[in-house]
């Protein structure tokens, strides 16, 4: 039976959970996921866990945060005066905002991490930064 190797188009189902069991992504109730192994769409560590699997095989594995979204970067967390927020905005923890970064000239998604009396703490880290990711996968097809 054919095993997954670099360059294969692979279709699979998956569920991704955090250590506490919280589901952060899944194909359940959606179309399965397809990609070419080695194309850079998946984390290299994730791809390495798929290589060698066969059609119909199921596997559970963990991706350490260093091989996923990395560590939490403190330079991506800062306080902003509430006066600088858009008028009428009712900030709450977890609220997502877009901010314009002057240095890069790009917009970036951020979230409000905490609220203070006069300021909010903004976190521009990926929401899964600093977290180990636990996956369950099932290989549906392999096309060389």
Layout of helices and strands:
Elements: E1 9-17, E2 23-26, E3 33-36, H1 44-50, E4 58-63, E5 77-81, E6 96-101, E7 106-115, E8 119-123, E9 133-143
Antiparallel strand pairs: 1-2, 1-3, 1-9, 4-9, 5-8, 6-7, 7-8
Binned, the helix content reads: under 10%
- CATH topology grouping of the largest domain: Chitinase A, domain 3
User: What would CATH call the architecture of the largest domain?
Assistant: Roll
Instruction: Please give the radius of gyration in angstroms.
Output: 19 Å
How many strand segments?
9
Main sheet overview = 5 strands, antiparallel
Number of domains: 2
Instruction: Tell me the fraction of residues in β-strands, as a range.
Output: 35-45%
CATH class designation of the largest domain = Alpha Beta
Structural class: mainly beta
H and E order: EEEHEEEEEE
Distance from first to last alpha carbon? 13 Å
> How many alpha or pi helices?
1
Low-confidence blocks of residues: none
Describe the overall structure.
- With 144 residues, this protein is mainly beta.
- The protein folds into 2 domains: 9-69 and 128-143, Chitinase A, domain 3; 74-123, Thrombin, subunit H.
- The chain is 5% helix and 42% strand.
- It has 1 helix and 9 strands, in the order βββαββββββ.
- Strands 1, 2, 3, 4 and 9 form a 5-stranded antiparallel sheet that branches. It has a 4-stranded antiparallel sheet with strand order 5-8-7-6, with no helix packed on it.
- The radius of gyration is 19 Å and the shape is elongated.
């Amino acid at each position: 039976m054919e095993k997954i190797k670099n360059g294969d188009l692979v279709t699979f189902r998956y569920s991704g959970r955090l250590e506490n069991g919280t589901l952060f992504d899944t194909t359940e109730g959606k179309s399965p996921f397809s990609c070419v192994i080695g194309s850079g769409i998946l984390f290299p560590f994730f791809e390495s866990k798929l290589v060698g699997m066969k059609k119909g095989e199921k596997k559970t594995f963990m991706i350490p945060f260093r091989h996923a979204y990395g560590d939490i970067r403190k330079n991506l967390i800062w306080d902003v005066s509430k006066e600088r927020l858009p008028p009428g905005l009712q900030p709450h923890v977890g609220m997502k905002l877009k901010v314009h970064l002057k240095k890069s000239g790009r917009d970036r998604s951020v979230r409000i991490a905490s609220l203070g009396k006069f300021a909010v703490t903004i976190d521009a880290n990926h929401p899964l930064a600093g977290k180990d990711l636990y996956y369950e996968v099932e290989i549906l097809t392999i096309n060389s």
